[in-house]
Amino acid sequence: MRVIIIGAGEVGSSIASSLADSHEVVVVDVDGERVDALTYSEDVLAIEGDGTSIATLREAGIDDADMIIASTDEDETNLVACGTAKTVDDPFTIARVKNVDYLETWQHAEDQRAFGVDFMVCSNLLTAQDIVRVIGLPAARDVDPFAGGAVQMAEFEVREESPVADQTVSEADRFDSLTFAALLRNGDVEIPRGNTRIRSGDKVVVIGSPESVQEFASELAPRKTPSSNEDLVIIGGSEIGYHTARLLEERGLHPRLIERDHDRARELAEELPNTVVMESDATDAEFLAREHVDEADAVVAALESDEKNLLVSVLAKQLGARRTVAVVETSEYVSLFETVGVDVGVNPREVTAEEITRFTRELHTENVALIENDKAEVLEVEVDGDSALVGRPIREAVADLPEGFVVGAITRDEEFVVPRGDTVIEAGDHVVVFVDRDVLEEVTAEL
User: Fold this and answer.
1) What domains can be seen in the chain, in order of their start residue?
2) Helix axes 239-250, 123-135, angle to 10 degrees
């Protein structure tokens, strides 16, 4: 498949890296330095030019393109690029936007092809959804649903005081429908065996039923799941902050939101009936102490500045907040945030790249989650009779596939099936698998 990506920033580069092994990828960007960097780092054709220009699109091969992904930081540029592409040919078009208004306009169009866009991804809304999923699972760093919600993948960091620290996987595996899919240790991906010992500092990827994942999370951090009595504080009335509060309200929660700007605070108070909106500067430590932020179960920093999000997160943590989640616009800063004590850093560009990558997979792949900046992937696949997994016990099928592959969960007729060595996968099953990036192409060809 020939894919043209417009925009060589963090989102576009991440998507290009994910697709380069199995597709013919062309990347267009107005910044010559970005083009040169991508040319040397990835196996793609990079072109310097304006992605909204017909001449540039023709140079990129629009006449032969199967898909156009417009992923610049400018909403209007992405919409115009998709519309321009449709005037030349009829490739499948994907547009990244930040403004939810554009998404709502597109969703309510009669044929859902407003702006010349076939699929639209809204960074602000996706980020808010990601934050809410993380808040809903104690100790989780990342959470993704599969199989219509019947399966959940979650990533946890094992701290020194964790009950599973220094246990083997066999000892830690006390849950009926949970699979320990991988350990992320010192930047490497390790597929655990029964005798693999879980160490403090490891990141554990588990796949299973939502109930079992929740039980595992509760063991790592024995606190209740957010309920109407939970104290959740959102700092910043940005679009991400607003949608986070709105989504929490939809779950029956009553968050508090701190916004400095008077007009914006008044607007939020009118639009969020079940949220207590407070007008103040959230970088004021005295205000945070006076409002008992130290008692908060989770504090979400959603200001429009990485520096301020880091400051208020550290302040909240020092005051005693149980958990902090911060929006981090610069992906390189995520590890820095988490090193200095922020529990979870959520990067909108990473979230967006993952959603777009999910949509660009082969047609039989139902869903995808990227692990640790694409070091591995969790895929949901509806298997057919030609799959290497079908018709024999999982232990035999996996033995014939490369190392770096784990069957994490199975759903059959919308019912959860626990994958064990003697489980036989049938045609039509939805299988959720963990795959190391190094063997991804080889494994997916067999699925």
Assistant:
1) 2-117 (3.40.50.720), 131-220 (3.30.70.1450), 226-350 (3.40.50.720), 356-446 (3.30.70.1450)
2) 50
